[in-house]
Amino acid sequence: MNRLRLNAAGYSLVTTMLMITLFFLLGLTILTVAVQQARFTAVRVENIESFHEAKTALNEAIAELKAELSDDDFFVHHDIFTPSQWDAFLGINEDTPSPETITGKLKARYGVEVEDVSYRLYNIPTNKVFLRALNLSKPFTDGHRERKVKRLVFLTNTPSFLKYALGSKETVILNGGVYVEQGNVYAGKSAYISNAANYVKKSGELTIAPIDAGLPASINDSIWHIHDKLLFSCTQTSSCWKTGGRTFQMEEGLFFPGWPDDGGPLIQQETDDFIDTDFERTVKDKLLQAAGLSPLSPETQQAYIERIENDHQAPLDVARELEQEGNLARVVTDDETPYEQSINQMPKDKPLWLDAEGKEITLYRGIDVQQNGQNQWLIVNGDLRIEGSTKSTAAVRGNLIVFGDLTLTGNLALNASIYVTGKTTIYNSHIDGADGKGLVLLSKGTLDIARINEFQDSSEIPNLKGYFYTDSSATIYVVGSYLYIEGGLFARGNGAAAPDTDINGLVINAFRGRIEPKDGEPWNFIPSSDMRQSRLIVKYNPRVLVEQGTGLPFVNQISLVADRLEVE
């Protein structure tokens, strides 16, 4: 009996000890996991803090860089007259940049590294232009790895309009479902949106799409810079507009302040000064530099200044003088030889001068105005029409100045910067880039774009790489058309009304969805809520501007355009 009691007591003790041991091990395990979790959380917090510190430092460095370069007459005030002086001021391409340079300051204050990738990545002729592509980076810790946040920044002496996907210094009107896939919108005065889409039939009849064309849309980080942050909207479809005679007229009583349903993008005022451009002065600058008279060369600087500062001499007069002086090569033509053949056979060691004495010239095939792969200039005195055939594509390589009107139609492939002193019409066209590059088109007169890539289905790839600017007003029709632009559209607005309207500024008409044609006209409208089904998509990409560097308009100020932040 005693033995049984002792055995029972022993079993109880063993059981108790086992339970104590199990609870101890369980507690120890929980404690270990908790400690490891706490350590993991602490490390994760440190990593996140390290990332945010690096991101903040990078953004602050870019803000300081922007402030350093904000000067109305930057180059003169800093005695910078050559690209090499510009590089020295920035402190790039130096193993140990001076603390007085931009690179030295950003390294000392923020720990940010600056790498010049202008030539390596973009083939920018840094000995000729002030355009620079800089990679700014800041390291941070991610676990046991060291990573970087970086941002590509373009520094350029180009006007402000090249910073926006869509815009005008006057009024911006977006009718229907245009989609801003990337980039910001600028309206210097007023902005209006509606779910109506206007178009013009081949007969010239002004027509309003009978059903909801969708409302404009943009990505979440897109900013709409609108004066006084005033935006007006109309959701009455065909009632938003009326066709009064030869123009579409806004029914202002149907437009109300704000975005419908409190939605829409972030709207704020632009805090940066708008850097404008003088169109005629810019054309003179291109003529003089193409002829070898550069403000950057001590030998030609004085001659350049005297001519460009002469307000009594129009750009066409400058072109004629340059041709008479032998700085331009006259294209020899006759009645039997096509203009394209005459242009292509000419040597390209000088800019070409094609004098039509104010008449219209039509090019049916491609032209190549390049030397050693670099765009040379063709100056045309007269209206120019480039008309690609329906069976082949006319490729245009080179920069053009047109003293007259420009019409683009048919199948075209373009690698060019084009300046037009008259109006520009792009109609019934299918336009692609050439050589992986695109088009920068600047027009003094109105810009009218309609029937581009007509009734084509939506695509994941941009079908037009380019930037379109008018010093006047512009009307864009993309109802039956399909246009996916990698670049942008900007109408400065100088008092003239946009085609088919009484609006001074940029007017866009777009449909979101599919269009089934009948007899060559939009017939069956099939709307869609999918932003990718918009028949006009604009994807702003500052790299497009790099490709036409020497053909871009320049000013005496520096603009900073930053690409998206990346982590590597």
How would you describe this structure to a colleague?
- This protein is α/β, with parallel strands linked by helices and 568 residues long.
- The chain is built from ten helices and 37 strands.
- A hairpin with a 2-residue loop joins β34 (513-518) and β35 (521-527).
- The radius of gyration is 31 Å and the shape is globular.
- The relative contact order is 0.13.
- Residues 40-45 have low confidence and may be disordered.
Distance between the termini: 78 Å
* Count of helix runs: 10
**CA radius of gyration:** 31 Å
Which class best fits the helix and strand makeup? alpha/beta
The biggest beta sheet reads: 25 strands, mixed
| Poorly predicted sequence stretches spanning 5 or more consecutive residues | 40-45
On the 0 to 100 scale, the average pLDDT is 86
Describe the global form. Answer: globular
Strand content: 35-45%
Tally of strands: 37
Tell me the helix content.
Answer: 10-25%
